[in-house]
Amino acid sequence: METAARTAPAAVIVAIDGPAGTGKSSTSKAVAAKLGLGYLDTGAQYRAITWWMLNNGIDVDDAIAVADAAAKPVIVSGTDPAAPTITVDGLDAAGPIRTQEVTAAVSAVSAVPEVRALITDLQRSIAAEAPEGIVVEGRDIGITVLPDADLKIFLTASPEARAARRSGELKGKEAQATDLAATREALIKRDAADSGRKTSPLAKADDAVEVDTTELTLEQVIECVVTLIEGAGAEKAGRVAR
Ligand code: DC
């Protein structure tokens, strides 16, 4: 594990929200490692419950069936930013939750209020049990899950930049052009579903700091967020000392 090179002066709770492809996961993991904080990928938890639904023959478009089954899977998240883990009923789910099948189904499952209530409780208990502080990344962390977080950050980027990052691993130019268009469409569709749902839609908290990453490298985003967390940590340490 990378040792903490910088320090957040107090155990801070940091909420990082934003749509897919803004660099949320890479940024959150890196800043948590640099500052010696825990790390929680809440999207992975929604993916994990979705994977379980698909494996157990639940129709993900049937909200009642999803709600009825929501409490059955046992989801456990490991919060070491150097090696985050996720298991469902004891099975390693880190690989399977990244398949296209899960990605296509996760917005429907995560829109079900019973699913959100259960996963939100799980997230709050993980944050409460992180004495060193934690970076929690997702869509509704600043507004719903941890409204009292010490720092809230909302990452944004243009749809073009987000699609380019998501499909960046493809080599051939032609393949990349086709993939870029498809990735952009899929991202826009998922954003619309995540932002438009009734329960806890993707949204920026009024007191969140917005960081537009379109023109920034990952290193620049990390530096910016580390500086914001150090500021929030110093402020918290001052409050605690007073
Ligand atoms: O960050 P991600 O792409 O792995 O997230 C997968 C899905 O989970 C995303 O489409 C919306 C949902 N999600 C959510 O509803 N609330 C969160 N806090 C995190 C993710």
Write the layout of secondary structure elements.
Blueprint (H helix, E strand, L loop, with lengths): L12 E5 L6 H12 L2 E4 H14 L7 H7 L5 E4 L6 E4 L2 E2 L7 H11 L2 H16 L5 E5 L2 H5 L5 E6 L2 H8 L6 H24 L12 E4 L5 H24 L1
Parallel strand pairs: 1-6, 1-7, 2-6, 7-8
Antiparallel strand pairs: 3-4, 4-5
Helix pairs in contact: 1-9, 2-4, 2-5, 7-8
The structure holds 2'-deoxycytidine-5'-monophosphate.
For this entry, give a set of tags.
242 residues, alpha/beta, 5-stranded parallel β-sheet, 8 strands, globular, binds 2'-deoxycytidine-5'-monophosphate
Characterize the structure shown.
- This protein has a five-stranded parallel beta sheet, sandwiched between helices. A three-stranded antiparallel beta sheet has the order 3-4-5, covered by helices on one side.
- It is α/β, with parallel strands linked by helices and 242 residues long.
- It has one domain: P-loop containing nucleotide triphosphate hydrolases (Rossmann fold, 3-Layer(aba) Sandwich), CATH 3.40.50.300.
- The mean pLDDT is 90.
- It is built from nine helices and eight strands.
- Helix content is 50%, strand content 14%.
- The structure holds 2'-deoxycytidine-5'-monophosphate.
- 2'-deoxycytidine-5'-monophosphate binds at residues 20, 42-43, 46-47, 106-107, 110, 138-141, 190, 194.
